[in-house]
Amino acid sequence: MARKPRPDLPPRPLTIRAAIAVAALVGVLFLIAAGSFLLSAASQEIDRAGLIGLGALLGSIALVQLALVLGFRRGKRGARELLTTIAIIVGVPILVRRTPGLSVVSAVMLIGVVLMWLPTSTAWFQRISPKPQNKWVRLASRTVSPFRKR
Predict the structure, then answer these.
(1) Which of 5, 26, 76, 149 pairs with 91 at a CA distance of 20 to 30 A?
(2) What pTM was computed for the model?
């Protein structure tokens, strides 16, 4: 049985295109940082385990980030929410601790989150995949109410 072709998405607004570019850039920068930590661990004898662990953590975050960018490009609402969660969990602590090289990356990551949630971006996502109605609101709308106009 042949697969149905994927429907064409409406044109992306500038905020979505910028957020995609920022998220991809942050993923690549995290991969570079992970490689840097792993190379530093290979050249040192002291504190290797910490550098290896940090490199592996940043590498896995980068791979997850890059995988989510693909879903975000297709208009997946879950990808936007997961990218936001990663940015808050990873970006805010790095920014607060003022880690020299990674603070810039985390600031760029948080700017990307702001771009994802601007009204034009939210309107685009609402057009592509409308959020389902809450089940309690749906149930209340189907019940007979004396206050409901007929």
Answers:
(1) 76
(2) 0.80
